[in-house]
Amino acid sequence: MTIQTRFYQVSGYRAHSNGWYQYDDKPMIRALASETSKDFRPGGSDAPLELVLGILPCGASYVLLTTEQMHLFTQKYRLNIPRGSWRSSDFLSLSPIYFHSEAELSSKLATYKQRPRNKNRRETEEPRDNSQANRGYVAGPVSVHYRAYFEQQRYVYMQYRCVRWIQCSFRRTLYHLLAKRISPEKFALSPPSWLSGIRVISIVFVQWSVDNRRRDERLQNPSLIEVGITDAHFPSFFDTLTGSGMLKEESRLAAISKGGTTLHLKLKQAAKNPRSKPQMPNHSKVEEITKSELPQRLRTLFDHDAQKSGMPLIVLCHDEEMTRGILERAGIDVSSYESGLSSLLPFCPAEDKVCP
Question: Tell me: the pLDDT tens digits for 305-321?
Answer without folding.
Answer: 777 777 888 888 888 89
